[in-house]
Amino acid sequence: MLGNNPIRRPVFKSGDWLEIKEIYRSIQGEGPNSGCPAVFIRLGGCNLACNFCDTDFEDFSTMSLKEILAEAGDLGNPSLAVITGGEPLRQPIENLCDSLLAAGFRVQIETNGTIFRPLDVRVEIVCSPKNLGKGYFPLRDDLLGRLNALKFLVSAHDPLYAEIPEIGQARYKIPVYVQPMDEFDAAKNQSNLALAAGIARKNGYHLSLQMHKIVGIR
Questions:
Q1: Is the per-residue pLDDT at 77 higher than 90?
Q2: Which CATH architecture has domain 17-215?
Q3: Residues with Cβ < 8 Å from 108, sequence gap 6 or more?
Protein backbone atom coordinates (compact mmCIF):
# COMPACT_ATOMS: atom_id res chain seq x y z
CA MET A 1 0.00 0.00 0.00
CA LEU A 2 3.11 2.25 0.30
CA GLY A 3 1.49 3.98 3.27
CA ASN A 4 -1.61 4.91 1.26
CA ASN A 5 -4.02 3.09 3.54
CA PRO A 6 -6.29 4.22 6.34
CA ILE A 7 -5.07 3.34 9.81
CA ARG A 8 -7.68 0.99 11.25
CA ARG A 9 -8.25 0.32 14.92
CA PRO A 10 -8.27 -3.16 16.49
CA VAL A 11 -11.58 -5.03 16.42
CA PHE A 12 -12.91 -6.82 19.50
CA LYS A 13 -15.79 -9.09 18.52
CA SER A 14 -16.53 -12.81 18.48
CA GLY A 15 -14.47 -13.64 15.42
CA ASP A 16 -17.39 -15.35 13.69
CA TRP A 17 -17.05 -12.77 10.91
CA LEU A 18 -13.77 -11.35 9.62
CA GLU A 19 -12.73 -8.77 7.04
CA ILE A 20 -10.95 -10.73 4.31
CA LYS A 21 -8.96 -9.36 1.38
CA GLU A 22 -8.26 -12.69 -0.32
CA ILE A 23 -7.70 -16.41 0.15
CA TYR A 24 -5.36 -18.20 -2.22
CA ARG A 25 -2.87 -21.03 -2.55
CA SER A 26 0.83 -20.33 -3.10
CA ILE A 27 4.26 -20.97 -1.59
CA GLN A 28 5.44 -19.25 1.56
CA GLY A 29 8.29 -17.10 0.30
CA GLU A 30 9.66 -15.60 3.52
CA GLY A 31 10.89 -16.51 6.97
CA PRO A 32 11.16 -19.89 8.69
CA ASN A 33 8.60 -21.67 6.49
CA SER A 34 10.06 -20.41 3.21
CA GLY A 35 9.43 -22.88 0.40
CA CYS A 36 6.39 -24.55 2.01
CA PRO A 37 3.15 -24.83 0.00
CA ALA A 38 0.50 -22.87 1.88
CA VAL A 39 -3.00 -21.50 1.88
CA PHE A 40 -2.84 -17.76 2.50
CA ILE A 41 -5.67 -16.00 4.29
CA ARG A 42 -5.07 -12.28 3.92
CA LEU A 43 -7.06 -10.16 6.35
CA GLY A 44 -8.02 -6.62 5.47
CA GLY A 45 -6.84 -3.46 7.14
CA CYS A 46 -3.82 -2.45 9.19
CA ASN A 47 -3.17 -0.35 12.27
CA LEU A 48 0.00 1.08 10.67
CA ALA A 49 0.73 2.84 7.38
CA CYS A 50 4.30 2.01 6.28
CA ASN A 51 5.62 3.84 3.23
CA PHE A 52 7.46 0.73 1.95
CA CYS A 53 4.55 -1.72 2.29
CA ASP A 54 4.34 -3.90 -0.84
CA THR A 55 0.91 -5.43 -0.14
CA ASP A 56 -2.64 -4.39 -1.01
CA PHE A 57 -4.91 -5.27 1.93
CA GLU A 58 -7.80 -2.85 1.44
CA ASP A 59 -11.00 -3.40 -0.60
CA PHE A 60 -11.82 -6.33 1.64
CA SER A 61 -15.17 -8.00 2.24
CA THR A 62 -16.73 -9.52 5.35
CA MET A 63 -16.86 -13.31 5.40
CA SER A 64 -18.20 -15.75 7.95
CA LEU A 65 -15.84 -18.18 9.63
CA LYS A 66 -17.67 -21.02 7.85
CA GLU A 67 -17.12 -19.37 4.45
CA ILE A 68 -13.43 -18.77 5.15
CA LEU A 69 -12.82 -22.38 6.16
CA ALA A 70 -14.75 -23.71 3.15
CA GLU A 71 -12.76 -21.56 0.71
CA ALA A 72 -9.45 -22.51 2.33
CA GLY A 73 -10.40 -26.18 2.19
CA ASP A 74 -11.34 -25.95 -1.49
CA LEU A 75 -7.76 -24.95 -2.35
CA GLY A 76 -6.42 -28.43 -1.75
CA ASN A 77 -4.48 -29.79 1.15
CA PRO A 78 -1.27 -27.88 1.87
CA SER A 79 -0.31 -28.55 5.46
CA LEU A 80 0.36 -24.87 6.22
CA ALA A 81 -2.14 -22.04 6.57
CA VAL A 82 -0.65 -18.53 6.72
CA ILE A 83 -2.79 -15.78 8.21
CA THR A 84 -1.46 -12.44 7.12
CA GLY A 85 -2.57 -8.92 6.27
CA GLY A 86 -2.45 -5.99 6.74
CA GLU A 87 -2.22 -6.76 10.42
CA PRO A 88 -3.98 -10.06 11.26
CA LEU A 89 -4.02 -9.47 15.02
CA ARG A 90 -6.09 -6.34 14.42
CA GLN A 91 -9.04 -8.73 14.15
CA PRO A 92 -10.20 -11.49 16.55
CA ILE A 93 -8.61 -14.49 14.81
CA GLU A 94 -8.66 -16.86 17.77
CA ASN A 95 -11.60 -18.91 16.44
CA LEU A 96 -10.11 -19.00 12.95
CA CYS A 97 -6.80 -20.33 14.26
CA ASP A 98 -8.54 -22.95 16.41
CA SER A 99 -10.68 -24.09 13.47
CA LEU A 100 -7.72 -24.38 11.12
CA LEU A 101 -5.77 -26.38 13.69
CA ALA A 102 -8.77 -28.68 14.17
CA ALA A 103 -8.88 -29.17 10.39
CA GLY A 104 -5.28 -30.42 10.43
CA PHE A 105 -3.41 -27.31 9.30
CA ARG A 106 -0.24 -25.95 10.79
CA VAL A 107 -0.98 -22.28 11.35
CA GLN A 108 1.42 -19.37 11.02
CA ILE A 109 0.58 -15.71 11.47
CA GLU A 110 2.66 -12.72 10.41
CA THR A 111 2.32 -9.68 12.67
CA ASN A 112 3.92 -6.28 13.11
CA GLY A 113 4.07 -6.88 16.86
CA THR A 114 1.90 -3.98 18.02
CA ILE A 115 -1.10 -6.07 19.12
CA PHE A 116 -1.32 -9.29 21.13
CA ARG A 117 -4.09 -11.85 21.37
CA PRO A 118 -3.98 -15.13 23.32
CA LEU A 119 -3.65 -17.74 20.58
CA ASP A 120 -3.29 -21.50 20.85
CA VAL A 121 0.33 -22.37 21.65
CA ARG A 122 0.52 -24.38 18.41
CA VAL A 123 0.11 -21.23 16.31
CA GLU A 124 3.47 -20.15 14.91
CA ILE A 125 4.00 -16.39 15.23
CA VAL A 126 6.47 -14.53 13.02
CA CYS A 127 6.89 -10.88 13.95
CA SER A 128 8.21 -8.23 11.58
CA PRO A 129 8.68 -5.16 13.82
CA LYS A 130 8.47 -1.69 12.34
CA ASN A 131 10.35 1.50 13.10
CA LEU A 132 7.75 4.23 13.45
CA GLY A 133 10.30 7.04 13.20
CA LYS A 134 11.50 7.14 16.79
CA GLY A 135 13.19 3.78 16.89
CA TYR A 136 11.84 0.29 17.40
CA PHE A 137 9.50 -0.07 20.33
CA PRO A 138 10.18 -2.81 22.93
CA LEU A 139 7.91 -5.77 22.29
CA ARG A 140 5.57 -6.98 25.02
CA ASP A 141 6.83 -9.89 27.10
CA ASP A 142 3.66 -11.87 26.42
CA LEU A 143 4.33 -11.57 22.68
CA LEU A 144 8.10 -12.16 22.92
CA GLY A 145 7.46 -15.35 24.83
CA ARG A 146 5.33 -16.66 21.95
CA LEU A 147 7.43 -15.73 18.93
CA ASN A 148 8.84 -18.41 16.65
CA ALA A 149 10.90 -15.85 14.72
CA LEU A 150 11.64 -12.17 14.28
CA LYS A 151 11.93 -10.94 10.70
CA PHE A 152 13.66 -7.59 10.28
CA LEU A 153 13.57 -5.58 7.06
CA VAL A 154 16.78 -3.76 6.21
CA SER A 155 17.53 -0.93 3.79
CA ALA A 156 20.83 0.62 2.75
CA HIS A 157 18.93 3.82 1.93
CA ASP A 158 16.60 4.31 4.89
CA PRO A 159 18.46 5.05 8.17
CA LEU A 160 15.46 3.78 10.14
CA TYR A 161 16.11 0.29 8.74
CA ALA A 162 19.89 0.25 8.43
CA GLU A 163 20.58 -1.94 11.48
CA ILE A 164 19.05 -4.74 13.52
CA PRO A 165 18.08 -3.55 17.01
CA GLU A 166 17.98 -5.63 20.18
CA ILE A 167 14.31 -5.74 21.17
CA GLY A 168 14.31 -8.91 23.24
CA GLN A 169 15.50 -11.58 20.82
CA ALA A 170 18.66 -12.36 22.78
CA ARG A 171 16.84 -12.70 26.10
CA TYR A 172 14.21 -15.04 24.62
CA LYS A 173 16.60 -16.75 22.15
CA ILE A 174 14.30 -15.96 19.22
CA PRO A 175 15.64 -16.86 15.75
CA VAL A 176 16.27 -13.73 13.67
CA TYR A 177 15.65 -13.46 9.92
CA VAL A 178 17.04 -10.52 7.94
CA GLN A 179 15.18 -9.55 4.79
CA PRO A 180 16.18 -6.89 2.24
CA MET A 181 13.47 -4.26 1.80
CA ASP A 182 11.87 -4.17 -1.64
CA GLU A 183 12.13 -0.53 -2.70
CA PHE A 184 10.89 -1.19 -6.26
CA ASP A 185 14.25 -0.15 -7.68
CA ALA A 186 16.72 -2.76 -8.93
CA ALA A 187 19.86 -0.88 -7.88
CA LYS A 188 18.51 -0.07 -4.42
CA ASN A 189 17.32 -3.64 -3.96
CA GLN A 190 20.77 -4.99 -4.82
CA SER A 191 22.29 -2.74 -2.15
CA ASN A 192 19.68 -3.88 0.33
CA LEU A 193 20.46 -7.52 -0.46
CA ALA A 194 24.16 -6.95 0.12
CA LEU A 195 23.43 -5.25 3.44
CA ALA A 196 21.09 -8.03 4.58
CA ALA A 197 23.59 -10.73 3.63
CA GLY A 198 26.37 -8.92 5.47
CA ILE A 199 24.31 -8.48 8.63
CA ALA A 200 23.22 -12.13 8.57
CA ARG A 201 26.77 -13.38 8.06
CA LYS A 202 28.21 -11.13 10.78
CA ASN A 203 25.63 -11.96 13.43
CA GLY A 204 24.70 -15.56 12.62
CA TYR A 205 21.18 -14.59 11.52
CA HIS A 206 19.10 -16.22 8.79
CA LEU A 207 18.88 -14.49 5.41
CA SER A 208 15.28 -14.27 4.22
CA LEU A 209 14.55 -13.58 0.55
CA GLN A 210 11.11 -13.03 -0.95
CA MET A 211 11.13 -16.30 -2.87
CA HIS A 212 7.68 -15.74 -4.37
CA LYS A 213 8.92 -12.58 -6.11
CA ILE A 214 12.05 -14.33 -7.39
CA VAL A 215 10.03 -17.11 -9.04
CA GLY A 216 7.24 -14.76 -10.16
CA ILE A 217 4.27 -15.88 -8.09
CA ARG A 218 2.27 -14.02 -5.48
A1: no
A2: Alpha-Beta Barrel (3.20)
A3: 28, 33, 38, 80, 81, 82, 83, 123, 124, 125, 126, 148
- Let me know: does 127 contact 112? Beta carbons within 8 Å: yes
Q: Which one-letter amino acid corresponds to residue 33? A: N
Residue 140, SS3 per DSSP: coil
Closest CA to 116 of 100, 137, 92: 92
pLDDT at 138 over 90: no
Query: What are residue 48's phi and psi, to 5 degrees?
Result: -125, 165
pLDDT score recorded for residue 171 = 92
Report how far residue 91's alpha carbon sits from residue 75's, in angstroms, rounded to the nearest whole number: 23
Cβ–Cβ < 8 Å for 180, 158: no
Q: What does the angle CA 116 – CA 122 – CA 123 come to, to the nearest 5 degrees?
A: 45
Q: Indicate yes or no: pTM above 0.85.
A: yes
> For residue 23, how far is the Cα from the chain centroid?
15
The total of other beta-carbon atoms located within 10 Å of residue 214's CB is 9
Task: List the one residue out of 153, 81, 79, 80 whose CA is nearest residue 113.
Answer: 153
